[in-house]
Write a structure and sequence with these properties.
By secondary structure, the protein is of the alpha+beta class. It is built from 21 helices and 13 strands.
Length: about 425
């Protein structure tokens, strides 16, 4: 009976994780992962919590305990990076982070002795690199992507003809952040323990988090250390020099993270290689263009491309009798537009140009959550999760986001939400548009 109780605790936790838009497909490997990260008691506690932000009072009420005891439990969970906290309008709030970027990564963002990190890494590798259901769900279950690529700014700074928007620049994200955390790269840490160390020997301490996530990880358990804006820019420079790709949260305002990724370890870049031409992350608004007059066919661009989007082939258009010259062929369906190839070209034969169609980026996290929830058919979960959004400010943010969506997405939202209030708002909006 005890075994059944233990299994039920983790099953309830798994169901709670999957209540939200980003989940974790069940498997025996996931069960083992949750056993490493959570004790049975912790699994029972967390399974009862709202997925969206909640207060100390709410947790105490859900757990049926005093606020003093609840705060002790919440602090303990923050120390294990199973929750993160923040202060809004003078009140402390907590949130259960999603699997990614969240509690799965946080567990390996520092060296720790309370869990077996080698065993956990092997489980992660099995769950993500072998079983693949989690990766498919994470990167391909919705049209709106979790992450987006940042262009390598030094490449564009040398080209005055290109215009780069603020939100497209990683340095702008750094400049706007109130807190910046630096931690160990979860991907390279995991692959090292799993017996697949980084092929390019990329630096490990390059994982950037921002805002309340950074502060919480730094204050509870040292999963990150707070750094200055200057230090963060140095991390970016180091990452550029190491041919790493910057992938951050797919929002324009206040992203929670920017990872500096290599093609051999990063799950997103591995997915880009494995499931090509499907894109697991939103690309930049740029594409590389080769000047064949300047190109010497050295092949360096193909060697450094993180998603293998460049092949070196003979130029068939050269006149007969001439020695065939090898040229880079870029697959624009696969290309991330990161600029790593342009940075490494010894003759500067590669420049970045704007994509013909602009890549649309969600405004903020609420915008992204709503879009993904609509696309996955889980909008009702987002709204009614233990009444986590049952306050005027949060509901207004969700409704405001829906009203700004294209008509098709609005219709999908209305169907899932089944709200008379939302239907009236949409009808009023259509009436106003007709009157204009």
């Amino acid at each position: 009976m005890g075994h059944l109780t233990t299994r039920d605790a983790y099953k309830n936790l798994e169901e709670r994780i999957n209540w939200f838009t980003q989940g974790a497909p069940p498997s025996d490997t996931l069960y083992k992962i949750l056993q490493v990260l959570y004790t049975e008691k912790e699994a029972k506690w967390v399974a009862k919590l709202p997925v969206r932000p909640f207060t100390l009072k709410r947790a105490a009420r859900v757990w049926g305990t005093t606020e003093a005891k609840a705060e002790k439990l919440l602090d303990h969970l923050c120390e294990k990076a199973l929750l993160v906290d923040a202060t809004y309008h003078g009140e402390r709030q907590f949130v259960m982070p999603p699997p990614m970027a969240g509690f799965i990564e946080f567990a390996l963002m520092r060296t720790r002795g309370d869990i077996d990190q080698k065993y956990l890494s092997e489980l992660y590798y099995q769950y993500m690199n072998v079983e693949e259901d989690f990766v498919k769900d994470l990167f391909f279950a919705t049209e709106t992507r979790l992450g987006r690529v940042f262009v390598q700014e030094p490449v564009l700074m040398n080209d005055k003809t290109n215009h780069i928007l603020d939100y497209e620049r990683a340095t702008h994200i750094v400049e706007e952040a109130d807190y910046i955390g630096l931690g160990t790269c979860y991907c390279r840490h995991k692959m090292y323990h799993a017996g697949h160390p980084c092929e390019i020997d990329a630096p490990w301490e390059v994982c950037l988090t921002f805002g309340n996530v950074a502060r919480s990880l730094a204050e509870h358990g040292a999963y990150a250390r707070l750094i200055s804006k200057e230090e963060a820019k140095e991390v970016l420079e180091l990452s550029y020099a190491s041919n790493l790709v910057q992938i951050g949260e797919n929002v324009r305002e206040h992203p929670a993270f920017i990872c500096n990724c290599c093609g051999c370890c990063c799950e997103a870049l591995q997915a880009a290689r494995h499931f090509s031409p499907m894109q697991p992350v939103a690309t930049t608004n740029f594409l590389p263009e080769v000047s064949f007059d300047a190109c010497i066919g050295c092949g360096k661009c193909a060697k450094v491309c993180p998603v293998l989007a460049i092949a070196i082939k003979e130029d068939k258009e050269q006149p007969e009798g001439n020695k065939k010259k090898k040229r880079p062929k870029i697959d624009t369906e696969i290309c991330l537009g990161c600029g790593v190839c342009a940075r490494n070209c010894p003759t500067k034969a590669i420049r970045l140009k704007r994509r013909p169609v602009q890549v649309i980026t969600p405004v903020n996290s609420t915008h992204r959550f709503v879009l993904q929830a609509i696309e996955k058919g889980t909008l009702q979960n987002l709204i009614f999760d233990n009444q986590a959004f049952a306050n005027h400010r949060a509901m207004a943010a969700v409704f405001g986001t829906i009203l700004k969506l294209p008509p098709l997405k609005q219709a999908l939202a209305s169907r899932q939400f089944q709200s008379v209030y939302l239907d009236r708002l949409l009808a009023m909006q259509k009436k106003k548009e007709k009157e204009r």
